[in-house]
Amino acid sequence: MQQPYEPTGTGPTDPPHRPAEVAHVLVVEDDPTVAEVVCGYLGRSGYTVDRAEDGPTALARAAVNRPDLVVLDLMLPGMDGLEVCRRIRGREPVPVIMLTARGDEDDRILGLEVGADDYVTKPFSPRELMLRVRSVLRRTRPSAPGTQARPLHAAGLTVDPAARRAAKNGVELALTLREFDLLAFFLRHPGRAYSREDLMREVWGWDFGDLSTVTVHVRRLRGKVEDDPARPRLIQTVWGVGYRFDPAEREG
Length: 252
Fold this sequence. Notes:
Elements: E1 24-28, H1 32-44, E2 48-52, H2 55-64, E3 69-73, H3 81-91, E4 96-100, H4 105-113, E5 118-121, H5 126-140, E6 152-154, E7 157-160, E8 165-168, E9 171-172, H6 177-188, E10 193-195, H7 196-204, H8 212-225, E11 235-238, E12 242-245, H9 247-251
Parallel strand pairs: 1-2, 1-3, 3-4, 4-5
Antiparallel strand pairs: 6-7, 7-8, 8-9, 10-12, 11-12
């Protein structure tokens, strides 16, 4: 039986955040209390919000009106959140933040494996969720003109930060939001070893979090950019440190 949801870290003095561009967020949550809290905070923060109580309804609404972001509960009746995420991500690269009441690391990792960009564990602070929402949406916006927006090239890979597109040997890659950001970061900083803490801070923008998130995204990215993911040559493991992007290995 589900326990009553009690949001943490809320307060009447929390200032609303108005996004520069109004984004459309689809909330998929069968618990009416949680849905009300999440939709309420999103609405007060200036987003347009749509709500679905189950997987089939969510898929139908996403097909009619493509959301900029999906906030998706893992535990849904009938079709669970993992299957909803698979189907949404199978259509187009819509960012997904997964909500879960489960504390098992395997469930969180599985959510990332099927394409979720982030997750928040219940009970959560709505303020924290809003920070995650803004972070994900900010990274989906085209980059401002400048050095960071110039296309990046290495070892047959091309990343265009302004267009949010990546390709390997001319073939476009289907990357999640985090995978794209991770690949762009590696291409900007070849030959340098980074710890998982470094990557979480520099790529995710977080000073804390579950480091297994980084491990999962590196593994998924290897599966898309390496010729042989079982024997990676581009994204190498530096034992005792973390990871290093080494395009010279492939070119050599």
